[in-house]
Design a protein that fits this description.
Radius of gyration: 39 Å
Number of helices: 3
Length: about 850
């Protein structure tokens, strides 16, 4: 029994039941005044608890395991039951003992001492209560007896006492099974007293008996807690999205089943009534958690409408309450404006590498260009676009998982702008589809939404045959770049470009950049550039640049050397084409200089909490010149997500003019509808007051400000479960063994997964890497949120080498739907391959002569034992 209690009759610790019944054995052979325990009793109320102890209680001797906790209320003192003889005078009596009966089989079947008594917070109850378990015969009830200590009883208080029972299958591990039903037999003994109305008063306790109800198991309950329309006032005939939030307001994790929605339904929906749209399954929701489900509608006629959402519209899920299953939102469908805006996406293409798109390499970056035109008759406000490097279906407003989200500037009627974005290409060869949508959050009222999207099909393949691979080596600077360098410093720069690939490179260019954020775009102009000749495999070209001017702004700067800056050669690796050299420029002594800083930043809405993808915010901030000289006119820029120190010349999503600002003066800047990052996760909005470092050094500590925020959206979450191998992988398996595999891929996320691949490795240790394929592959998905795809693979060949192996099933080979090595997207099955194993026991020669005679004839006898489970030839 737990160390917090005393044992009866010298019973060993291992004998105490793991039962979770709190029973106080009736006072042994003691006469008492009989009374009836009311049901339910406010003093002795057994109840289920949803809490599972995730850590082993330190005072439980053995075994170490996980425990379910069952609790009851216990009051040390209360008025007597007025119907009982012993309590006719309604006197206050103190609790002496409580006992609850346990069915005999739970004792006979070996409940052990891994049963403990604790308070509600899990601490040991030994300081407040004594308890012991009495073992009974095979037919008689056993019991657990609990007695408050004197100090507890005198305190006249109330507390909650819990029994901790191992959460293991096959044991009497619920109150119901231990008590043998839905109630528990309870005996309560109070302190002794003398009823005044008896002829011969005696000092005897009051013994109350009766049954205490076991409260029902924890219940499920779901509520529709929010509805959000985008746009909030849809235009008639145009699409809009509805995000519906379903919250688990119950006590246990559960799946609410389906979710039905109506675009316009003012009256309450009935169970089973057909909805305009239904999501077949919402997926498992933890207690207290919420999920968001999106629907797309086409707005109806102009007028006031009532959007209705109904969780579990078929009423198939038993819940504590059905009154919170429905929620409505009033909204207005508006007419299309007579003067219109119409954003059109066109000319989507991947550029930046030599040759057609088929020469793009897996895992590299590429430049995507497209044109946005305002074909309407009114100016369009600033908004955002979203790009997906691989998306099978046409993009819609606020669709999940874009590769990049960035700004589209305001456009006059009839105006157009060309936008270039750098995207990371998928990591595996194959056919892909680039998808674009302009006005990603659908915040702009347009005459037509149908032309906001564009698609572009492309191939990723590794070209057959050898490839060049240019790298920069042997970089020398004179003077060296360590320490502080004066303003106006010039540099002698020498470096070598070597072709370490297996094919000749094409003629191209090298370019030198001062202060450029990240990798440059193909063909970008720098501080200096020059010709780079065709280089055979193993050949190199040395470049010498005398008197190269460094940046003239004091502070940290970065010099970048880029080989093949115009991307003329298709290479095996582009990452080694760039070398970055940091250096510092000193400030002139005793000079009047400006000093720009950013203060008083206000964001509307606030950046606190979780923000949706495509969120627009209004920003206001002050740029203060705290220096001793007026600043030169320049630019400010705002990045939607930038870690680290901004680099001179790098521009963000929105830019604007700044200054001149006199010494001590302030310029207030207001930016409306700034688009936040379109990728889920923690982000950092960064405002830079001096883009080109005209007045301050690169990364001057007060010339920029950082605002953290978080974005979220609906995401898939693929996991592998219910794996069955035939024959089983247990024991030793022979070389060449084939197995049949069946497994489920479950999408426990909140959005449908994109189509992808699964793969199976016959032996793989560690976390699988995106794009790595195993012995057998197959197609997977799309899988709706909460849905399951069952996969069967026949005659899968196990590893052909003897030893311990690990079969690994990966549900998302190319990480199309999950991060590299997402913890639940793969499953590992260990197995062991064995083979024939011969042991040479003994060798003898007949006749036994020493030394052996030349030309003699002898018999050599050998004893060989096959110690394996497989047959074979010696």
């Amino acid at each position: 029994m737990a160390s917090g209690g005393k044992r009866a009759g010298g019973l060993q610790a291992a004998v105490i039941c793991s039962a979770l019944v709190l029973l106080l054995a009736p006072a042994a052979a003691q006469t008492c005044y009989a009374g009836v325990l009311s049901t339910p009793s406010t003093n002795f109320d057994l109840q289920y608890s949803s809490k599972v102890l995730n850590t082993t209680l330190s005072y439980i001797k053995k075994p170490k395991t996980t425990y379910n906790r069952y609790c009851f209320n216990l009051t040390a003192a209360s008025p007597c039951n007025s119907t009982a003889l012993c309590c006719k005078n309604s006197g206050i009596t103190r609790l002496s003992t409580v006992s609850i009966a346990i069915v005999p089989t739970c004792i006979v079947k070996g409940l052990t001492s891994n049963f403990s008594l604790s308070l509600a917070d899990g601490t040991n109850a030994k300081t407040a209560f004594r308890f012991k378990i009495n073992k009974a015969s095979r037919k008689a009830d056993a019991n657990v007896r609990i007695a408050p200590k004197t100090s507890t009883a005198k305190a006249l208080g109330s507390t909650t006492v819990c029994i901790n029972l191992p959460a293991a299958a096959g044991l009497c591990n619920t109150v119901g099974s231990l008590c043998g039903g839905t109630t528990c037999k309870v005996n309560v003994t109070t302190s002794k007293f003398k009823p005044a109305n008896l002829t011969k008063p005696k000092s005897l306790p009051c013994c109350l008996t009766g049954n205490v109800n076991i409260q029902p198991a924890l219940q499920t309950d779901f509520a529709v807690t929010a509805i959000q329309l985008t746009p909030t006032s849809p235009v008639t005939g145009q699409p809009f999205t509805a995000g519906v939030t379903v919250t688990n307001t119950g006590e246990v994790a559960a799946n609410p089943g389906s979710l039905g929605v109506w675009a316009d339904k003012a009256v309450q929906a009935a169970c089973g009534e057909a909805a305009d749209q239904t999501n077949a399954t919402v997926g498992l929701i933890a207690a207290g958690a919420s999920v968001n489900v999106s629907f797309t509608f086409t707005a109806g006629a102009v007028g006031n409408k009532t959007f209705r959402a109904y969780s579990d519209p078929t009423c198939a899920i038993p819940e504590k309450s059905d009154t919170n299953d429905q929620l409505t939102l009033s909204y207005t469908v508006v007419a299309a404006p007579t003067s219109t805006v119409n954003l059109v996406a066109s000319a989507l293409a991947i550029t930046g590498y030599a040759g057609p798109p088929a020469t793009l390499l897996p895992g590299q970056t590429a430049n995507v260009t497209f044109v946005v035109t305002n074909a309407g008759t009114n100016p369009s406000p600033a908004t955002t676009y979203a790009l997906w490097a691989n998306k099978a279906t046409v993009a819609v407003c606020n669709a999940a998982g874009p590769s990049i989200v960035a700004g589209v500037p305001a456009l006059a009627a009839g105006a157009a702008t060309t936008i270039t974005a750098v995207v990371a290409l998928p990591g595996a060869i194959g056919a892909y589809m680039l998808q674009l949508i302009v006005d990603y959050p659908c915040s702009v009222a347009e005459s037509s939404e149908a032309d906001n999207t564009a698609s572009y099909a492309y191939q990723l393949a590794v070209p057959a045959g050898p490839l060049p691979d240019l790298a920069i080596t042997n970089v020398l600077t004179n003077p060296g770049l360590t320490g502080l360098l004066p303003v106006g410093q010039v540099l002698n720069l020498t470096f070598t470009v070597v072709n370490q690939g297996t094919a000749a490179s094409l003629p191209g260019l090298y370019t030198i950049f001062n202060n450029l954020l990240g990798l440059p775009l193909c063909g970008a102009l720098g501080t200096a550039s020059g010709a780079l000749g065709a280089l055979a495999p193993g050949a190199n070209q040395t470049v010498n640049l005398p008197a190269l001017p460094l940046a003239s702004i004091p502070g940290l700067n970065t010099l970048q050397i880029v080989a093949d800056s115009n991307c003329s050669s298709l290479e095996a690796d582009k990452t080694n084409n760039v070398v970055a050299l940091p250096y510092n420029i000193s400030s002139p002594a005793s000079s009047l200089v400006p000093n720009l800083g950013i203060t008083n930043i206000l964001a509307t809405p606030s950046l606190a909490g979780l923000l949706p993808l495509g969120q627009l915010v209004n920003l206001t901030f002050d740029v203060v010149n705290s220096g001793t000289a007026a600043s030169v006119a320049g630019l400010y820029t705002i990045f939607d997500d930038l870690l680290g120190v901004p680099v001179c010349g790098a521009v963000g999503a929105v830019n604007g003019t700044l200054g001149p600002i006199a010494a001590g003066a302030t310029q207030t800047v207001t930016v409306l509808n700034f688009p936040l990052a379109g990728v889920i996760g923690a982000k950092t909005l960064k405002i830079v007051a001096d883009v080109n470092c005209t007045n301050s050094a690169n990364g001057s500590s007060n010339s920029f400000a950082a605002l953290p925020y978080n974005t979220g959206a609906l995401l898939p979450n693929l996991g592998v479960s219910n794996i069955l191998a035939s024959p089983t992988l247990a024991g030793l398996l022979p070389l060449g063994q084939l197995v049949n595999l069946t497994f489920d891929v479950v999408n426990s996320g909140t959005a449908a997964s994109a189509a992808g691949l699964y793969t199976i490795f016959d032996d793989l240790l560690g976390v699988p890497v995106c794009g790595a394929v195993g012995a057998v592959n197959g197609t997977l998905g799309p899988i709706a949120a909460g849905a399951t795809q069952t996969v069967t693979v026949l005659n899968f060949p196990l590893a052909g080498v003897i030893g311990a192996k690990t079969l690994k099933i990966v549900a998302d080979v190319n990480c199309t739907n999950s991060a590299n090595g997402s913890s639940n997207s793969f499953a590992a099955l260990p197995y062991t391959i064995s083979g024939v194993d011969f042991v040479l026991d003994s060798v003898s020669v007949v006749p036994l002569l020493s030394p052996l005679v030349v030309g003699g004839v002898y018999s050599i006898n050998m004893s060989v034992t096959n110690v394996s489970r497989f047959s074979g030839l010696v």
